[in-house]
Amino acid sequence: MSERTAEPAGVGVAGAGYVGLTTAACLAHLGHRVTCVDTDAAKVTALRAGQVPIAEPGLPELVEQGLSDGGLAFTTDLAALREPALVFLCLPTPTGDRGAPDLGAFDDALAQLRGGLRPGCVVVIKSTVPVGTADRVADTLGVSVVSNPEFLREGHAVHDFLHPDRVVVGARDETAARAVAGLYAGLDAPLLHTTPASAELAKYASNAFLAVKASYVNELAELCERLGADVVDVVRTMGLDNRIGSAFLSPGPGWGGSCLPKDTRALLHTAGESGLDFSVLADAVAANARQCDRVVAKVRHAVTGSAEGSLAGLRLGVLGVTFKAGTDDVRESPALAVAERLAAEGAQLTAYDPGAQADLRLEHVHLVDDPLLVAKDAAGIVVLTDWPQFRDLNWAQLGQLAEQATVVDARNLLDPGELGQAGFAYWGLGRR
Ligand SMILES: NC(=O)C1=CN([C@@H]2O[C@H](COP(=O)(O)OP(=O)(O)OC[C@H]3O[C@@H](n4cnc5c(N)ncnc54)[C@H](O)[C@@H]3O)[C@@H](O)[C@H]2O)C=CC1
Ligand SMILES: O=C(O)[C@H]1O[C@H](OP(=O)(O)OP(=O)(O)OC[C@H]2O[C@@H](n3ccc(=O)[nH]c3=O)[C@H](O)[C@@H]2O)[C@H](O)[C@@H](O)[C@@H]1O
């Protein structure tokens, strides 16, 4: 169903990744005329043919719709951003030196846009960038700049863009703020007008808070194990308190992905530069590294029967390589971090992931397209990503194929009772 409500406006989008492509396709869906520019020629060619290179539900349909009704166009030519009244910057900001974001791609685009934007153009920063960037961009480009950070989750990108919990517009210029807010007029979401600095910091603060929450629950799971409590019951009890909320309370092999790790590093860097020892956040990051160690230790113990056992030469099956369920993204995947450590101890790893891209090749892991192959002759199976499909596998059959029916469920995804009935020794997190 079309959600065209606002006045059509010419919009340019620089970057056609998770955020840029979603922004472009969704704004076209909302009735705006959008030109999306990416320097990756192969990506642009594919997009022009309606091929969406990332796994995001609903995105291919919106791209197809935009291409066919003419509301959405793709190009490699940054000069196409001279015409639109609003230009979104959705460029990558990966980790650079000492945890600070690497703004190389972002600044390259700025250099190309300098002097080439139409008078009165508003530049909108959607990339996650350090506090002060909007003001710097305004000085560089000589136009109004609005900070409008994005909060979508991978795997839910279209849904989250069209149904956001909030839209934040950080601007010094009231007219520019109104122009950006107007783009979202068709959405039912609280709109916050802030300074650019507050909008920029709110983005980092949100991701960092999620990271702290996930690290808290991972440490809590360890405590549950030591005290003989069940973390599933403990977090269910916590989550029913509205002040805490039930989201982001599942223990796992650590939090990863393309954003939480880099954004926590960036915020720690910013805090450090300003002289603040943001120790709560630093501890959450350190706890995340320990979580990988814990899962590796648990696998060692479960599979060899001893905390000091050797994994050398043992075949292990791995379920999940993406950083979470519902995505094809393996950037900073905790599953791969654990796999790499297991491989370093000499284990031979065969992995299955329902979301991994067909051409994905991994250094330490043999990827297969059938979960049964993961179990074959395995000394143990390790669940590292929370794909719900793993619950529905024929575990009795997996148990028969395995040399040793042991499962380490590093996502607490499976039902221990059912696994027991299927003949497995079950090892979860925080629930022994
Ligand atoms: N991935 C996510 O879920 C979210 C990401 N963000 C932030 O959004 C920004 C973009 O992230 P992603 O979309 O994940 O990145 P991505 O890596 O998926 O996409 C970036 C795109 O920009 C293109 N590009 C690089 N340099 C360019 C240039 N000079 N001109 C035009 N295109 C260029 C690349 O070819 C690529 O297609 C980052 O700052 C990230 O922190 C914010 C919220 C969610
Ligand atoms: O800035 C970004 O890029 C985005 O980063 C995260 O989104 P995303 O990276 O898609 O991933 P999440 O769903 O937040 O999961 C992050 C990691 O935490 C882990 N996690 C999450 C929840 C939980 O209870 N336990 C847990 O271990 C996940 O498995 C995953 O490894 C934020 O949730 C988005 O709001 C934000 O826009």
Automatic annotation (TrEMBL):
What pathway is this protein a component of?
A: Nucleotide-sugar biosynthesis; UDP-alpha-D-glucuronate biosynthesis; UDP-alpha-D-glucuronate from UDP-alpha-D-glucose: step 1/1
For this protein, the record's SUPFAM superfamilies field holds:
6-phosphogluconate dehydrogenase C-terminal domain-like, NAD(P)-binding Rossmann-fold domains, UDP-glucose/GDP-mannose dehydrogenase C-terminal domain
Instruction: Look at the named UniProt entry and state the broad enzyme category this protein falls under.
Output: oxidoreductase
Q: Which SMART domains match?
A: UDPG_MGDP_dh_C (SM00984)
The record's keywords, sorted A to Z, are:
NAD, Oxidoreductase
Q: Name one Pfam family in it.
A: UDPG_MGDP_dh_N
Reactions accelerated catalytically:
UDP-alpha-D-glucose + 2 NAD(+) + H2O = UDP-alpha-D-glucuronate + 2 NADH + 3 H(+)
GO aspect biological process, one term: polysaccharide biosynthetic process
Q: What is this protein called?
A: UDP-glucose 6-dehydrogenase
- Enzyme nomenclature, EC number: 1.1.1.22
Tell me the domain of life: Bacteria
Q: Which family does it belong to?
A: Belongs to the UDP-glucose/GDP-mannose dehydrogenase family.
- Give GO MF terms, alphabetically: NAD binding; UDP-glucose 6-dehydrogenase activity
